[in-house]
Amino acid sequence: MVMEDPNHKKTVRLKPRTLAAAITGLGTLSAPVYLANFKIYKVSPVFAGLSGIELYVIIFLFASALYLAGVFLIIKRLPARNASWSLALIIVLFGILFRVCLIPSAPTTLSRDLYRYIWDGRVQQNGMNPYKYAPGAEELAVLRDEGIFPNINRKDYPTLYPAGAQIFFRLFYALAGDSVAGFKAIMVFFDTLSLIALIALLRSHGFEPSRVIVYAWNPLVIFEIAYSGHLEGLTVFLMVVALYLSAIHKKIPGVIMLALAAAVKLYPALLLAAFLNRGDRIKGLLTFATTIGILYLPFLSVGSKVSGFLPVYLKNPYESFNLGLKYLLMRLLPGLDYYLLSVLFISALAAAGLVVLLKDKQKIDVLQYAYILAGLLMVLMPASLHPWYVILIIPFLAFYPHPAWLMFATTVTLSYLKYVSPRGAMPTGILLAEYVPLFALLAAGHILGRYGSRKKFGGMNFSQHNKKMMGR
Fold it and tell me: Is residue 207 helix, strand or coil?
């Protein structure tokens, strides 16, 4: 059910058939973009002189324009009290089509992290601990080949990925071997499951299933998972299932799923604070820690090396990428130690989690506070904010379609232009284009929210919606 807004009675709602036709039209226009992807330079000589990254930014922005139009139609023009499963089905089918189109493409233009996933799986399949040796070590020379090894980044460092990711790498390698397309297909499979889980989560909170378009058609999600094969395809699935289990009052299973998500990519651990209510905090913490501890058991033989590349990642300023607030502080205080600032940001995130943890959970919504924590994580990311990290917050935008984050999910892809800049450094103009609209829109949304116009700016007054749903 879509809640009527008393302040916007004149909002024009489209008829269901008209809206379905419009969404189908946008999907039909979007499909060739994903089908052609980086081969679009063959269509016109205009694209021939562009680098792969420059070409990507162009096609990404075009796909984003179509996507935002679709989101606008669903959020603002969907008829009230219209639970249209046929419209949701159209959206999901197009979302799957967009992803499938990108599976065959080799992920060499944007990020080559997928090759490290395959390498770590290969190392384990051959009975070795991925935390023990770097890919360039002589002990692993026998595993090197001409397809995977040359594409690995940081060959002189052990793996960065936590234990949960490593276990999945081994399972995926057993299924797909050295097949890049096979690994990507597995990630797309989990990402497709995310669409189903998100629809279930939407319905559990009384929202229209068609709001799944916010995640299903998001170009950042589609390219970073279906083209680059990033782990967020698995991480988001586990996180959304955790949120759904919490919504149906399966607290401990929800905590276990969140622990699995955090063991794949560390940052969902921050959301734990939103899951733990007053009655089961200790049990929840123990469940979370035990789940992660069990996953690490197969790798503990290397001792302190089990942290892998992570300490270097936090300490080395050359690993810094696309940071907003941290970059600003380093410019204002040039003598500030990079690692100290990383620690301060981690401490700030931990403090935010503690505040949420100690709140009276009878008065807050888990989803709402998980969204707040995810937003803080984007702002206070301690090391790097690669575009695919932003995927974490996008499922929440189906409930809170705030313009700030919808815009940022588009502009964050401009950060790739660093790699084609003359000096190989991030242009200040790119950072301004990303972060000025983000912070300005967040600030404006907060101010308007305090004066009773929260829905106008943030898409939906969620707490009022929930009260109405529970009182039906």
Answer: coil
Rounded to whole angstroms, the maximal C-alpha distance in the chain is 70
Specify the 3-state DSSP secondary structure of 6: coil
Tell me the pLDDT tens digit for each residue of 114-136: 999 999 999 999 999 999 999 99
d(CA 162, CA 307): 8
Tokens linked to 171: 């399972």
Contact (Cβ atoms closer than 8 angstroms) between residue 394 and residue 221: yes
Residue-wise pLDDT for 50-61, tens only, equals: 888 999 999 999
Q: What is the 3-state secondary structure (H, E, C) of 174-236?
A: HHHCCCHHHHHHHHHHHHHHHHHHHHHHHHHCCCCHHHHHHHHCCHHHHHHHHHCCCCHHHHH
Number of domains in the chain: 1
Six token digits for residue 204:
């559990």
Give the closest residue to 231 by CA, choosing from 197, 200, 195, 186: 186
E-only strand ranges, 159-266: none
Please check whether residue 173 lies inside any domain of the structure: yes
Q: Is residue 390 part of a domain?
A: yes
296 domain residue, yes or no: yes
pTM equals 0.90
Say how many C-beta atoms besides its own lie within 10 A of residue 470's C-beta: 8
Banded model confidence at residue 384, pLDDT cuts 50, 70, 90:
confident
Boundaries of domain holding 117: 16-470
176 C-beta neighbours (distance < 10 Å), count: 17
DSSP state of 109: S
Q: Helix, strand, coil % (nearest 5) of the chain? A: 70, 0, 30
Is the residue at 415 inside a domain?
yes
